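hey so u asked for the seq, here:
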Amino acid sequence: MRAIIFASGELAHPDLDRSHLHPEDWLIAADGGARHCHRLGLTPRTLVGDFDSLTAEDVRAAEQSGIELIRHPSRKDQTDLELAVRHALDHGADEILILGALGARWDQSLANLLLPAAPGLEQARLRLLDGPQEILPLRGGQSLELHGLPGDTVSLIPLAGDARGVTTQGLEFTLKEGTLPFGVTLGVSNTLTAASATITLAEGLLLCIIIHASGVSS
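ran it, structure tokens below
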């Protein structure tokens, strides 16, 4: 089951973001993400959060329209987006696309960028989409296949220390059992040379970003 979660950051490419949706997707709004759904003419099936970004009228309207409301207290240990992601995982989602996670606030944006790498979220494929940009985590001992077009930009950014044993195929600048040091920009702005690329990581954690020149992601 695939879940689409709308966060309450900026939705700078609404038409492109809407093109990612499938009729069978489970649409979830994380608090203020409900406004993005409304902007796109969508009705989420589930609304998760403390609802501090919504008016009382917004919440009543959601309830009256039959949307499932999962309300959390305002004093909580997770952001609304993390709560929405974990709710989706707990209810069977094995693929999650997150829209509207970036922009507006730097603290929220950074936390959202790191969220796919959080412990306990390994069982699902998580992706953040921001228009033509697609962001995915890669953990040590795993491989990841990126799909796009030749010329698309690919960046590999190490998190939580050095990324070791990095092997790439299908990129202009290749690595074989290489190391990407933490805090160094060595892995930024590589390029797809084919319709797909494979990245394998032995140890560490990578944030993999692909920028689709055509604007279309897989």
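The radius of gyration is 18 Å. Residues 2-131 form a domain with the Rossmann fold fold (CATH 3.40.50.10240).
lmk if thats what u needed
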